[in-house]
Amino acid sequence: MSAEPTRPQSREDFEVAVICALPIEYDAICLAFDKFWDEEGDVYRKARNDSNRYTTGRIGRVDVVLAQSAGMGKVAMANLMNGLMSSYTALRLVVLAGICAGVPSQEKENDILLGDVVISKTVIQYDFGRQYPGEFSTKVSIADGLGRADASIRTQVEAFESDHERGRLINRAAKVLTEIQDKGKKKRRPVDYSCPHPSTDLLFESSYLHRHQGSSDCGCSTTQACNVAVATACEELNCDASYLVHRPRLEQLVSNQDDATFAELEIFVGCIGSGDTVIKSGERRDKMAKKHGIIAFEIEGAGAWDGAPCVVVKGVCDYADSHKNKKWQRFAAATAASVTKAILAGYMQTDKKLHDRGGSGQIEASSPSSRHGGNVYGSITAKHVVAGGDFSGNNQTFTFS
């Protein structure tokens, strides 16, 4: 019988944070937790100027701090990151989890469907650049753009590009999704995280606009839709099915099963476009995706990317076109939460700092070619020890017994 996990002693014991922007994203992530450390109130406090609200707990074997930004967009997320990093100074991984818009692909093996999950290899801020007459030019140079992911993040993310590791990740996430769906049903106010039927996964040709067809008494035209049309479902507007894009993977799903299952989900790794402008144009989506190699669009990643070692994990809920709706959002939030927990199952924690428990230990510092040279030996018996020295680039080793 496994021992009950020990609650972290301080904020410095947390290496992982999960952040999000929307309540549906937050709720889905909460269902991925196995234990909460703050059930009876806050135990860790926060830095003086930190305005964030935190939830702490355990996902699998990893202690995690969870936070939701005070609004959508990169500014709200950057503010969250500033407070997070001031209170939790030992973080080595921040996962931005939630929902996004996917970019369709004409390649069968790369065809993104609703409910699939994207993982960031890079993030590009698509609304940062210069507006020329008739064209907006995104800045993508090293000097102007977002930085590269942390080396440890790149190593992990690149592993997910292999069929073997991605398959293992999908298998782990499948089990987690079932847990999340079961927990959702048992909540005080039950929440349905089941997958909508794949026949509701509609992708129209990029140029086909979501609008009233043949109506002259509204604001719809050949280039834009009226407000009523924007808020109306495709089924009610009678969007023409002859403009639907032929997708073999989706058609196979529809023909093979009555109910969609997580086993059919795919995970894609690549460049994610991030900006405060919500994309609702299939033509603009395709143009930017082709130019920058973008596989998905969202609106918080740019605010979090440079603030800490970060990876974006988001479930696809629409296609960034005029036909987008909220039908798949809850399931997409659940798939993102499932993949997040599956990623953390493989997270390698660092050696912990020595916490005083009234014991003693031995310390050895070795630096043969240091300015002061030699080895230093000592016994730790006091509650607080401060050691100082001047070393010049060699490894120092500390051992305790």
TrEMBL record:
Span of domain Nucleoside phosphorylase: 16-161
GO terms of biological process kind: nucleoside metabolic process
Native species: Pyricularia oryzae
Gene Ontology MF annotations: catalytic activity
Region Disordered: start-end pairs: 355-374
This protein's name: Nucleoside phosphorylase domain-containing protein
InterPro entries: NLR-like (IPR053137), Nucleoside_phosphorylase_d (IPR000845), Nucleoside_phosphorylase_sf (IPR035994)
Top-level taxon in the UniProt lineage: Eukaryota
Bias (Polar residues): 363-372
Lineage: Eukaryota, Fungi, Dikarya, Ascomycota, Pezizomycotina
Record-linked PANTHER family: AAA+ ATPASE DOMAIN-CONTAINING PROTEIN-RELATED, ATP/GTP-BINDING PROTEIN-RELATED
